[in-house]
Design brief:
single chain
């Protein structure tokens, strides 16, 4: 019988292997310490409840949250008697206009992209693509037919 103080062959093999192992033998690291959104990182250092904040952003993005607040502040600022003279009110109005202009520009860009995509389907040699094109055009025509008349256009 081997002396208990003397390492056995298996003990020696394990010690040799563990000395050469690349992975740690004990892993005590918590995963998902935080999360990132663009260049913003949320973790326990800058939020008292990062999981709650993540759930909120999953339901309503920061952009939507800020947009709703900006709409409300702009409305309140417009109703203020000194809105045209006070710098903070003018800055809110300028910020809202800038954001609205970006949204408009992006909508125009998406429509241009849609036109290009439709044209690509229409000209495709693939029969399925041309079929999809015809389906999309039919759906668009139905949608457009249901739209109310443009209030800015002169009728008749």
């Amino acid at each position: 019988m081997a002396d208990p103080a003397e390492p056995t062959f298996v003990d020696s093999l394990y010690q040799s292997w563990s000395a050469m192992a690349l992975a740690p033998q004990k892993l005590m690291q918590s995963f998902n310490n935080g999360w990132s959104f663009g260049n913003l990182t949320i973790n326990s250092s800058n939020s008292s409840a990062p999981e709650t904040e993540q759930a909120i952003v999953a339901a309503e993005s920061y952009g939507r949250q800020i947009g709703k607040l900006l709409d409300a502040v702009a409305l309140l600022a417009d109703r203020h008697p000194d809105a045209a003279e006070k710098e903070p009110f003018k800055e809110v109005a300028a910020l809202k206009k800038k954001i609205d202009d970006v949204k408009h520009g992006m909508a125009v860009a998406r429509i241009k992209q849609l036109r290009g995509d439709l044209e690509s389907l229409r000209l495709s040699p693939d029969k399925q693509d041309r079929k999809r094109y015809l389906e999309c055009i039919a759906e668009l025509r139905l949608y457009l037919a249901k739209l109310p008349p443009d209030p800015t256009e002169k009728q008749g």
